[in-house]
Amino acid sequence: MKIKSPTAVIPGIYLALFFAYLFGPLIIMVITAFNSSNFPRVSPWECFTTDWFGKLVADDKLIEGLGNSLLIGVGVVAVAIPIGLAAAIMLSQVGPRLRASLYTIFIAPILVPGVVIGLSTLIFWDRIGTFFNAPYESFFYDGTFLTIFGQVTFIAAYSMLVFLSRIQRFDTTLTEAALDMGATPTQAFVKVLLPFMAPAIGSATVLAFLASLENYNTTVFTIVSSSTFTTVLSSKVRYGLDPSISAVAVIIISITLIGAIIYECRNRYHSKGWSLVVAERPVLKVATHPGSVAAVLGLLAIGAVLFIQNHDSSACTAQILEDKRAIQQKLMEQQSLDTPAVTPAPTTPKLGPLGGEDTGGTSAPSPFGGNAGSIFSPENLSGSAGSTPSTSDAPTSPPSSGVGGIFAPENLTGSGAN
Amino acid sequence: MRDLFYDLVKRNGMAVSIYLMVAVSLWVFLLIILPQLTMLDYSFRFNLPPGKIGGPEDVYTLDQYRYFFQGSGSSGGLNTLDIGILFKTLMSAVFVTVFDLLICYPVAFVLAKSSTGAKARLLVLALIVPYWINEILRAFAFRILFGSTGVINEVGMGLGLFDSPVDFIREDVALYAGLAYAYILLMIFPLYNAIESLDRNQIEAAQDMGANWWQVHSKVVIPYAKPGIASGMTMVFMLTAGALAAPQILGGPSNLWFTQLVYQWFNSGGNWPRGSAYAMILLVVCIALVLLTMRIFKVSIGEIKR
C-alpha cells in the first residue's frame, strides 16, 4: 500500500473544508427546524419538535405564494423554452460574424442585474398599458404576467445555453441525408433535429422551472401587489426570524436531495459497468432500478410526513417551560431577598405578567399533538360530502386551531361549511 | 435581416423559419431591448403625477442624474451618501469576486485534474445541490450562523476567541460570506471547464523541466484558463453587484447596497424616474468596470463562454 506524503493530503483537506463551507450552513439551518426554541438556533437545545412544519402548512400566505409561483413557473417554461430553442438553432445556422453579435445580445440578459430587468419590464408594460388606455385590471398591470415576461427575459438565455451545448454535437449530415431522401425542410426539422434535442428540452425545462421558482431580484419588482413563494419567504425573513423558515428549507433540501439521488442512480444504472454487473443478477437489477430507488425514497418521505404529523413534543416543551418558570421564580426570590423591606410587594406582580405571557405563548396545546392523528381517518375523507361540519374529527378542539387538519377535505372547501 | 430569413427558409422550410424569427424577435425586442430603452427614457424625465404625463411639463431632464451626484441641495455639493454607497457596493463586489476566485480555483483544479468518472460526477452533484436551495433560504442560513446567538459566536466564545458576541451582521462579515457562498457555482464551472480541457501532458512537461507547483500554475494553467477565469469573474461580479436578497437579509442596518437604493426609490420612494436613473448608473458603471478589467487583462468578450 502506498503511503501518502503529507503534501498529498492537502487537496483532500482543502476539499473537505470547502464542502464544509458549502454544506455547514445548510445543515445548521436544518437542525434549527427541529428545535422548539422560538428563535432559530442550535444551542441551547430545548426540545425536539416538529411543530414548525405545522405552522408552515397553516401559513395561508406562503401556500398562496407557492400556488402563484407554480403558475408562473409553468408560464415561464411555456414561453422560455421555445424562445431558447429558436435562439440556439438560429445561432447554429448563421455565419460567424452575425453569430458573435447575436450571441452577445442573447447572453446579455444573464449579465444584466435582475433588479434592472425587473424594473425595466415593469416600466415598459406600464407605458404600453398607458398608451392603450388599458384599465388597471388588464394584464399590463398584472403581477403574474409581468413576472413571466421579466423572468423569461433571462431564463430564455439559460435554456439557450443548454440547447447550444447539445446542438453543437448535432451531426448536420443527418439533416442533409433526410433532405436527400425527399423530406421537406420542415419534416427534417420535426423528425430529425427535434428528436435529437429532446433530452436537452427536458433538462432545460427543469432548469427553467427551478430558476423561475427561486428568482427574487426580478420578481420583487414585477410581481406588483401579488406574491410568490420567494417574495413571501423574503418578507417573513425580514420581519422576524422564525424556525418555520428553517422548516421550509428542510422540505426544499429534502426534495432536492431526493431528486439528486434519483438522478445519480439513473446515471449509474445506465452506465456500462453496471449493466455488466447486473446482467446475471435480476434481483440486483430490479433493486437498483431508478424506479425502485424512487419508490423507496417516496416511502421514506411519506414516513417522515407521518412522523412529523404524529410527533408530540408538548410534554417536553411544558417541561422546558416549567424549568424556565422555576428559574424565574428563583430569580424573583433572589431579587426580593436582595432588596429587603424596601419594595417587596411590587416586585412579584411586576414579574408576574412576564411569566404568564410566556406560559400563554408556549404551553398552548401543540398544533400537531391535538388532532393530527385523525387526518388519515376514514371519516375525514368521506366527511366533506354535503355540509357535514367537521365536528367528527376533532370534537374537543375548535377547528381553527387544528393545524393538522389542513389536509382535511372540509378545510379545502372553505370555512363556509362550518 | 432579409438575407438571414432567406437563408433560414432554405434550411428549415417556411413554417419553422417563421417560428425561429418570431420567437427570437419577440425575445430580443419586446423583452430585452425595448424595456431597457424605456427605462433609459424614463430616467431622463421628471417624476410627475399621472395626470401631467404627456403634458407640457413632461420634458427631458438630467435632474435624476444630477440628484445622484449633487443630492437635493442645488449648491453643488457632492451627494457623498449615494456615491459612497455605489463605491462601497462595487468594492465589496470586487472583494467577493476575488475571494470566490481564490477559494474556487483550487477546487476546480482538483476536480478537473485528479477526479475521474463517478467520483467527479458525485462531486459536481454535491456542488450543484446547494445551488438549488432558494436564495432567500441561503441568506437565512447565514443569518442563523452569524447571529449573536449563532453557532459561530457560540463556538468562538466557547473557545475563548472573544468574550462577548461579535455583531457579524453589523460588521458585514455575514453579508460577504453569504454573497460569496451564493455565487460559488458560477465561478467553479467556467474554471472547471477551462482547466479540464488542458492537456495533462503540459503540466507534466513543465514539472519535468523543473517547474515548481507555483510556476506550473502561474505559467501554464492560469494563462490557459484565462477565458474561464474572466467568464467566472464577470458573472460573479455582475450578480454580486446586482444582488438584492442577500443585502436585504444579511446587510447591516446602516449599510445599504446600491440595489437597495434603487428598490427604495421605486417602492417606498415612489419615484420611478429616479429609480430608473439609479438602475442605469449601476448598469453602466458595472459594464464599464468589467470591460476595463478585461482590457487590462487582455481578454476579449468573444472568449467568454460558459
Description:
The complex is a heterodimer of chains A (418) and B (306). With 418 residues, chain A is an all-alpha fold. Among the domains of chain A are: 60-239, MetI-like (MetI-like fold, Orthogonal Bundle), CATH 1.10.3720.10; 314-417, no CATH class. Helix content of chain A is 71%, strand content 0%. Chain A has helices at residues 10-32, 51-57, 60-93, 96-111, 114-131, 143-167, 172-180, 185-214, 219-222, 229-238, 243-270, 272-278, 282-287, 290-310, 314-338, 344-362, 367-371, 378-382, 409-412. Mean pLDDT of chain A is 75; it is low at 343-418. Chain B is an all-alpha fold and 306 residues long. Chain B has one domain: MetI-like (MetI-like fold), CATH 1.10.3720. Chain B is built from 15 helices and no strands. Chain B has helices at residues 2-12, 14-42, 63-70, 80-114, 117-131, 135-146, 151-158, 173-182, 184-196, 200-208, 213-224, 226-241, 245-250, 258-266, 272-296. The longest helix of chain B has 35 residues, at 80-114. At the A-B interface, helix 1, helix 3, helix 4, helix 5 and helix 6 of A face helix 1, helix 2, helix 4, helix 5 and helix 6 of B. Chain B: This is ABC transporter permease. Chain B: It comes from Thalassospira profundimaris.
**Tally the helices of chain B: what do you get?**
15
How many individual β-strands of chain B? 0
Please state the structural category of chain B: mainly alpha
Q: Main β-sheet of chain B, in a few words?
A: none
Pair of chains with the largest interface and how many residues each contributes: A-B, 90 and 88 residues
Mean pLDDT of chain B: 81
Give the DSSP E fraction of chain B (strand runs of 2 or more residues). Answer: under 5%
Oligomer: heterodimer
Measured on Cα atoms, how large is the radius of gyration of chain B?
Answer: 24 Å
Helical/strand content category of chain A? mainly alpha
Q: Termini separation of chain A (Å)?
A: 74 Å
Span of the ends, CA to CA of chain B = 27 Å
In total, the number of strands of chain A is: 0
- From the 3D structure, determine the CATH topology of chain B: MetI-like fold
SSE pattern of chain B: HHHHHHHHHHHHHHH
CATH topology of the domain at 60-239 in chain A: MetI-like fold
Helix content of chain B: over 70%
Name of the CATH first level of the domain at 60-239 in chain A: Mainly Alpha
Q: Per DSSP, what share of the residues of chain A sits in E-state strands of 2 or more residues?
A: under 5%
How many domain modules of chain B?
Answer: 1
Keywords (chain A): Cell membrane, Membrane, Transmembrane, Transmembrane helix, Transport
Protein name (chain A): ABC transporter permease
Membrane topology (chain A): Multi-pass membrane protein
InterPro entries (chain A): Bact_Polyamine_Transport, MetI-like, MetI-like_sf
